[in-house]
Design a protein that fits this description.
By secondary structure, this protein is of the alpha/beta class. It contains 16 helices and 20 strands. The protein starts with a strand and ends with a strand. The protein binds flavin-adenine dinucleotide and NADP nicotinamide-adenine-dinucleotide phosphate.
């Protein structure tokens, strides 16, 4: 076994937006780096999730890098919420423009990384057995990059194709004339179902939990709005940085309970008509107070009852948990799809799937003929990609063992016992609660500032202290406990995967508070880290 590139400063795992920006920044501070990427292409999320209807739900003008002013000005978004191929083109453009590809090795899956204490070096091994030695390792492996497929009895007997939204084929998939079984009604399922249903002969949707979805009201980009946005980009980005989620919306500071019902309904109607995630900002306490939340969730349920013509189907589609408990979905014609006569909804709570045979899904009540299956069943989120790699720190301890009862980190950036290992948007940081491109830029800037400072001072080793990590864990739980989301089963707390430790993972105090803490920690000589 030969060690490749023995003089490497930083080995990066992953070449999604996090990996790309890392390469750019590391080069700027004069550190050598290489990114290993499992996929045959760059782009991460936008490389893998090619299902019909995939698009962002943070407006494209905001779901984009801010680090380079010319990049901001030259790129044209075609829609309010850009479709997956366009976001992938954007990632390719970024890679070409900053000449990043020469530092990326594609089709290279990392299987293990070991900290060699005798020389303070990380030794990273790929699936094909190649080894890389580096002083630092940064896991830019993504929070939603390990697709989760449930175990279904008899899956091996099913003769048709089975597609997972998170690992969609590159070639065109046609459902024309087919009977499709469709499992999962989270963001991915809600985006893709309407398009699959238009093409297929029949679609049977197997729903375990009814979800909330707000219309996207997507539209072509308005040239005048694009011009204005570009003219004011610096101010708009700065303003977005002051919001909790890094998205420019128009949050209302009033409580839902302090206004008369009529006024509240008008506000909800306006937000519904405008579309998208800003609905959650209609009142300040929708996400935190059950009574306030009920006013919004009742509004939602009445919308569903108004759209879906069959009352029994409409009731099945009405969620039973608080709005925003799971991540809210954003759709184009999701509820309308259930008015099509080729679409049937089955509630798995009433009739669970027992097994698959060669051409049918068998529930406890009936057999439903299917030619193809779509699994929109989500991801082993936040910890999945890290736990899939055997990461060994000091004294041979593995990250997976240390995280057996849930992830522990300091600031979502580092882990005690794993010196010189950083994670981008790791558990314990705002990450998936925010506009991820803003979270990625903040993390990469912090990591590279830290490495630059270490380089200047001739320091070689950084590690999170156990005590500060423990305190941070408590802070993450404290912040999470204020939100109804922490009480609702979802991928945010590991509840979507049987046997996974159930711990609320993102830091919910908002990006401005988190950024202030990170900056303060850095300015106090990296408080809570030991640096030698
Ligand atoms: P990823 O894009 O997940 O990239 C990680 C990369 O690491 C992948 O390419 C993966 O192949 C690679 N990798 C993982 N493990 C290994 C290994 N062992 N060896 C080698 N390579 C490895 N966020 C928003 O803010 N707004 C949105 O509108 C939005 N929409 C989304 C839509 C979908 C369908 C999904 C799934 C997520 C969405 N997200 C959205 C979250 C999205 O994941 C982030 O916005 C962002 O793209 C993450 O970038 P990343 O580089 O951190 O991770
Ligand atoms: P998800 O939100 O976890 O949804 C998975 C769906 O599959 C849920 O309806 C879930 O039901 C169902 N499911 C899981 N296991 C099942 C089983 N064993 N049997 C039956 N049903 C099962 O995953 P996702 O839709 O892929 O989205 C994940 C995240 O990615 C989103 O929350 C969002 O952050 C991001 N995303 C964003 C967009 C966007 O609009 N930009 C699009 C896609 C994804 P339960 O609810 O009962 O678990």
């Amino acid at each position: 076994m030969t060690v490749k590139q023995p003089d490497l400063d930083v080995l990066i795992v992953g070449a999604g937006f996090s990996g790309l920006y890392l390469i750019h920044k590391l080069r700027q501070i004069g550190l050598s780096c290489l990114a290993l990427e499992a996929g045959e292409g760059i782009g991460g999320t936008w490389y893998w999730n090619r299902y019909p209807g995939a698009r962002c739900d943070v407006p494209s003008f905001q779901y984009s890098f801010s680090f380079d002013k010319d990049l901001e000005q030259e790129w044209e978004w075609s829609e309010r919420y850009a479709p997956q191929p366009e976001i992938l083109d954007y990632a390719e453009h970024v890679a070409e423009r900053f000449d990043l590809k020469r530092s990326i090795k594609l089709s290279t899956k990392v299987v293990s990384a070991t900290f060699e204490e005798q020389n303070n070096t990380w030794s990273t091994t790929t699936e094909s057995g190649d080894q890389y030695a580096s002083r630092f390792v940064v896991f830019a492996t993504g929070c939603l990059s390990v697709p989760f497929a449930p175990t279904i009895n008899g899956l091996e007997n099913f003769s048709g194709p089975v597609y997972h939204t998170g690992k969609w084929p590159h070639e065109q998939v046609s459902f024309e004339g087919l009977k499709v079984g469709f499992v999962g009604t989270g963001s991915s399922g809600i985006q893709s179902l309407p398009i699959v249903a238009k093409e297929a002969a029949e679609v049977t949707v197997f729903q375990r939990t009814a979800n909330y979805s707000v219309p996207a009201h997507n539209s072509k980009a308005n040239p005048e709005v694009s011009k204005q946005t570009k003219a004011n980009y610096p101010e708009l980005r700065e303003l977005a940085k002051t919001t909790l989620s890094g998205v420019l919306t128009y949050p209302n500071t009033q409580s839902a309970l302090e206004v008369p019902e009529e006024e509240r309904t008008t506000v909800y109607e306006e937000r519904w008509a405008d579309g998208g995630l800003p609905f959650l900002g209609a009142y300040s306490d929708i996400m935190t107070d059950l009574q306030a939340n009920e006013t919004a969730s009742e509004f939602f349920k009445n919308k569903i009852r108004g759209i879906v013509k069959d009352p029994a189907t409409a009731e099945l589609l009405c969620p039973k948990f608080p709005l925003g408990g799971k991540r809210m979905c954003v759709d184009t014609d999701f509820y309308q799809t259930f008015n099509r006569n080729n679409v049937t909804l089955i509630s798995l709570k009433e009739e669970p799937i027992e097994c698959l045979s060669s051409n049918a899904v068998h529930t406890t009540n009936r057999a439903i003929e299917c030619d193809a299956l779509v699994l929109a069943t989500g991801f082993d989120a936040m910890t999945g990609a890290l736990n899939a790699i055997e990461i060994k720190g000091k004294d041979g301890q593995t990250l997976k063992d240390q995280w057996a009862s849930g992830p522990q980190t300091y600031l979502g950036l580092m882990v005690n016992g794993f010196p010189n290992l950083f994670t981008v948007t790791g558990p314990g940081s705002p990450s998936v609660f925010t506009n991820m491109l803003m979270a990625i830029e903040q993390h990469v800037d912090w990591i590279t500032d830290c490495l630059e400072q270490m380089k200047t001072k001739g320091q070689t080793l950084i590690e999170a202290k156990q005590a500060t990590q423990d305190e941070w864990g408590q802070e993450v739980q404290r912040a999470g406990n204020q939100f109804l989301r922490s009480e609702t089963d979802s991928w945010y707390n590991g509840a979507n995967i049987e046997g996974k430790a159930q711990v609320f993972m993102p830091y919910m105090a908002g990006l401005p508070a988190y950024r202030a803490i990170c900056d303060e920690v850095a300015s106090e000589n990296y408080r809570g880290f030991s640096i030698t």
